[in-house]
Amino acid sequence: MRASRHPCLVLLLAVLLPSLAAAQSVMQITTVPLRPGIWVLSGFANGNILVHDDGTDVLIVDAQSERRVGLADSALRALTARPVHTVVTTHYHDDHIGGNPHWRAQGARLIAQCNVAVQARKDTTITEWREWHRAPAPADALPAECLEDSLTLERAGDQAVLRHVASAHTDGDLVIWLPRANVLHMGDVLELGAPPFIDWWTGGSWEGMLAAVDAGLAIANAETIIVPGHGPPTDRAGMVAYRDMLQTVGQRVRDAVQRGESMAAIVAARPAAGYEESFGSPSRTDQFVQLLVVGFSRQSAVR
User: Fold this and answer.
1) Residue pLDDT, tens place only, 28-46
2) Residue 103 has pLDDT above 70, yes or no
């Protein structure tokens, strides 16, 4: 990720990055203030919770995993005693909806894009990607309310604008914008410090990821604080750099797949050259390239 030019974010990242590195390997929640009444609770490996306390109640974006939601709740209670009224889910993956039953039991309403419940109910083993088994989510983790395209929630002194970005990380992604605070949560459309994940098996796509990032860039200006699904907050320049990576690496891999090159040959050619540091490690770089090969191969097979 390119260094931020926004002075507040420079300070923010200097404080946050060491804690995020530690959070990858231990049960730890880091609290980062963004604006008055707005924080990020970060477990890194299990995603970022955006907290908005409007002075009346609390809205959170994403719920953490079942394993870490208690830690997230404890961190939240150190910030505010007001109740969590609304939980907005960015997509169906367990590290984002696993904590939903915890918040539901406290009386929170659960809102997501309508495809979230469809995908979360499935029991699927994906043999072409590390025998990935997706178990059905429990019923109380599923959203009670859903939207197809967009929804605006009125907040005291602000709004929360929910917008569906289609066929991106999954088929049910939401981005959430607080316009007056100028804070934008991108969900797992944006991941920093690790390779992004495209869930090809639930309607995700490279083209949709690029379109979703473009939708976020159309909202953001130089003062916007952008919260990724995982990793430290960034700004518009940081998301532009992320888009450049996604476009360049994806195009290199897609071209190689269309030429009929093998997985091994594509990985060995290092199509992510110039961007490896943004993925965290050589093995994660290779993992991202392999994921792209699998996805583009799937697309080629159905044409």
Assistant:
1) 899 999 999 999 999 767 7
2) yes
Task: Kindly indicate the confidence band of residue 209, based on its pLDDT and cuts at 50, 70 and 90.
Answer: very high
- Strand 158-165 relative to strand 150-155: parallel, antiparallel, unpaired? antiparallel
Residue 204 · residue 243 · CB < 8 Å: no
Q: What are the residues whose beta carbons fall under 8 Å from the beta carbon of 2, sequence distance 6 or more?
A: 237, 238, 241
| Contact indicator for 116, 89 with CB cutoff of 8 Å | yes
Quickly tell me which residue has 């797949």 as its tokens: 257
Question: Which tens digits make up the pLDDT trace of 141-180?
Answer: 999 999 999 999 999 999 999 999 999 999 999 999 999 9
Q: May I ask the CATH class of domain 7-236? A: alpha beta
Residue 290 has pLDDT above 80, yes or no: yes
Q: Give 154-163's long-range contacts (Cβ < 8 A, gap of 24+).
A: 155/52, 155/54, 155/59, 156/54, 156/55, 156/56, 157/54, 157/55, 158/52, 158/54, 160/52, 160/59, 160/86, 160/88, 162/88, 162/111, 163/215
- Closest to 246 (Cα-Cα) out of 277, 213, 215, 202: 213
Distance CA 184, CA 176 (A): 6
Residue 18 has pLDDT above 90, yes or no: no
Two tokens, residue 303: 């044409």
Task: Classify burial at 276, counting beta carbons within 10 Å of its beta carbon; exposed 0-12, middle 13-18, buried 19 or more.
Answer: middle
Two tokens at 290?
């392999």
Q: What's the whole-model pTM score?
A: 0.90
* Full DSSP string of 122-177: --EEETTTTTEEEPPPPGGGS-SEEESSEEEEEETTEEEEEEEETTSSSSSEEEEE
DSSP 92-113: S-HHHHTTHHHHHHTT-EEEEE
Q: Please tell me the distance from the alpha carbon of residue 185 to that of residue 182, in angstroms, as a whole number.
A: 10
